[in-house]
Amino acid sequence: MKPLLYFKVTFYTIGISLSLIFSLMTSALADGVVVDKVYHPYVLPNEQEIEWRLFSHRESKNNQLAQRFAYGRSISNNAMLEFYFVGEQDSDDNFRLTSYEVEVRWMLTEQGEFWADWGVLFEIEQEHQQKNREITTGVLFEKEFGRTSLTLNAFLIHEWGQSIESEFETEFRMKYRYRYLEQVQPAIELYSGENYIGIGPALQGLQRFDGQKQLKWEFGFITGLNRRSKGHVLRVALEYEF
After folding, report:
1. What torsion, rounded to 10 degrees, do the Cα atoms 54, 106, 174, 15 define?
2. Residue 235 and residue 66: Cα distance in Å, rounded?
3. What is d(CA 158, CA 63) in angstroms, rounded to the nearest whole number?
4. Which of 80, 119, 134, 235 could form a disulfide with 140 if both were Cys (CB 3.0 to 4.6 A apart)?
């Protein structure tokens, strides 16, 4: 393919994808708070990981607390399979298992191969006590600008089951990060849904060890921006890759 034609095709593809992402942002239908991990589109060959996430949403005198525990491993040079157990705090302040998740991330482009890096995500969730299910399909985007990075996630969600109506929802997540040091990378995060839109500071970093071993950590504090987005959300994540 000639360079000029290749550039036009690539630019056209990027334009369509970005239009999809921002249309999902402006027409978001997701219920409740949508703060969670902002996914990067990268997968390492022969990678394994153990992950823990904490989510705390405080609104007036109410506090919603949830945790996720996961194990994942690459099933090819560009695909990662991950299993999650999700627990939430009940009215008696006891944690209980609420759902299981299976997630596949597929890296579509090699890092730095094109103008931006792309990936997709597929996830299936099953509630533990009720016959409710959820399927998520997502587009993952990342672009580096010098020492900064812009990461965008757009998700289409279909949920149905015993105690919920069958419906489609969308979510949007964004992170703008400054790579000051590997261990210290400040960022700004934005999350959007119909009943929630929030923004706030975040901090992340990683520590490398022998070979492919590394420990990643993330911390974010998100504040709601409109009348429906009440309270503050604290999120914490630790991920050990080996």
Report:
1. -170
2. 10
3. 27
4. 119
